[in-house]
């Protein structure tokens, strides 16, 4: 089947979410510098990174297919948490999230006939976690490449006391916002 767009991401979760809503796509991951700028707000950061990913992919491909990119950040006390560097770093992150609420910012950038962006901000509350749980979770391998050191769709789902916002946004691609952007490019999820 003919692809409808290019996903500028190697994330299997983003690809699966697009398949979930029936969007046929190619994958063309791009490597950009994702270092936050000094003083950059979490909102500005995810918008910039998603936009830079879609622009880089569009420039590399040079074809007519629209390009979809996204960026997701876990934010606690206004600080972007990033991905854990090692087990100790993951333990610090998860200990910080334990028993409290944090935000997950997920930006989407679509380049086709124009450039459109959208952002989802969700609030996630963790239950209190024990040191043993945090260690066992790291040992599972799941948190190694995940923003904030956890994957809501995996084992960490048992840590989530509540969520306000977009479950798919916390996974990495807010489907409500994505479908709205796709419609602007003439790609309808439900015809």
From TrEMBL:
Record's keyword annotation contains Cytoplasm: yes
Enzyme class: hydrolase
Classification via Pfam families: Maf
Alphabetically ordered keywords of this record: Cytoplasm, Hydrolase, Nucleotide metabolism
Annotated catalytic residues: 71
Positions bearing the site annotation: Important for substrate specificity: 13, 72, 153
Keyword presence, Hydrolase: yes
Family, as annotated: Belongs to the Maf family. YhdE subfamily.
Function field: Nucleoside triphosphate pyrophosphatase that hydrolyzes dTTP and UTP. May have a dual role in cell division arrest and in preventing the incorporation of modified nucleotides into cellular nucleic acids.
Protein name as annotated: dTTP/UTP pyrophosphatase
């Amino acid at each position: 089947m003919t692809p409808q767009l290019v996903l500028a991401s190697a994330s299997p979760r983003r690809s699966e979410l697009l398949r979930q809503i029936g969007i046929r796509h190619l994958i063309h991951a791009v490597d950009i510098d994702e270092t936050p700028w000094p003083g950059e707000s979490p909102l500005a950061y995810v918008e910039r990174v998603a936009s830079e990913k879609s622009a880089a992919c569009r420039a590399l491909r040079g074809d007519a297919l629209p390009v979809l990119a996204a960026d997701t950040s876990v934010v606690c006390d206004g600080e972007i948490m990033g991905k854990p560097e090692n087990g100790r770093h993951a333990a610090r992150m998860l200990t910080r999230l334990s028993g409290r609420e944090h935000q997950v910012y997920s930006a989407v950038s679509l380049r086709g006939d124009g450039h459109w962006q959208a952002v989802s901000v969700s609030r996630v509350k963790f239950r209190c976690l024990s040191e043993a749980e945090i260690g066992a979770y790291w040992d599972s391998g799941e948190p190694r490449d995940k923003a904030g050191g956890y994957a809501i769709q995996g084992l960490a789902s048992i840590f989530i006391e509540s969520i306000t916002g977009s479950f798919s946004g916390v996974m990495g691609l807010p489907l409500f916002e994505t479908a709205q952007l796709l419609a602007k490019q003439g790609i309808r999820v439900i015809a």
